[in-house]
């Protein structure tokens, strides 16, 4: 395929997924906060710098902890499929009542889970990482230590909603998920919010 | 210049025609309409808050605005609920497609590219930005844009070959 043929193909591929948003211009302009003054750059830089120093200190301080935890994870055996499904169901509304499992797949490298559902809906998973985050310091790209880990990805379907949930294959911990439907509202299909317990290893996207 | 000084009408005038292209970019990166609209709204708010950074000598604020929206998308994807798993709706039946199989393969191949490659391809091929503006959006040099573009299309080609080879 030469460059001339590739360009329209790329354009078509992107545009085939386009969903128009009529009137967006008016909505954006209407929601503007026009009385906001320009932000002081100096203050932002100082805040950013201070956060970076704090984050660096925290990472150095807890490096030993992280190493120990990573070692443990490296030796662990992945949980079974049924355990993963049970853990994943806890993330669904009403404990997963009314949902059936479409597919469950162990992703050793945590990359590129792809599955086309019965209604033609595509499910996909990107690279899942977990990162050491020590609250209240935010995750900073340059200073935060991250690692890949295997996940179980479980795709569910109910008469009104579809959902897919990723579970850390070592710990059974929720690693993220998505849900949606063409018929039910977004709220009806939303996954159960995570528990507010603080976890240092936070799943994230790479 | 008036937009930079805080003239609301002037700012609106330069912002308005760029909202739909920015939304198109955000949607391509996030694949969810609500999130893409949020990214565009954030872009507009941030641009207004940082209007002192508008450089009238460049003649356009397009690369600056697209850089903001690209950054918003990057941040949105890092958030937990986003990104780990994405669900894509089945394509609408009434959408014209020349060759559904080829389009599906291309979509899959593009999906497998790293985020920065997809961003680059969208800016260059879909939004038709000149390489100089793409460089400004990505904050890299013109030479880097060309070499990244070359590498991205090579990667895409190899993935397409893999898709069609059983």
Describe this structure in words.
- The complex is a heterodimer of chains A (206) and B (166).
- Chain A is built from five helices and nine strands.
- Chain B is globular.
- About 11% of the residues of chain B have low confidence.
- Helix content of chain B is 70%, strand content 2%.
- Chain B has eight helices and one strand.
- Chain B has 166 residues and is mostly helical.
- Classes of the chains: A alpha+beta (206), B mainly alpha (166).
- Strand 3 of chain A pairs antiparallel with strand 1 of chain B, so a sheet runs across the interface.
Task: Write a concise synopsis of the structure shown.
With 206 residues, chain A is α+β, with helices and mostly antiparallel strands. Chain A is 33% helix and 24% strand.
What key attributes describe this structure?
heterodimer; A: 206 residues; alpha+beta; four-stranded antiparallel beta sheet; three-stranded antiparallel beta sheet; 5 helices; B: 166 residues; mainly alpha; 8 helices; 70% helix; 2% strand
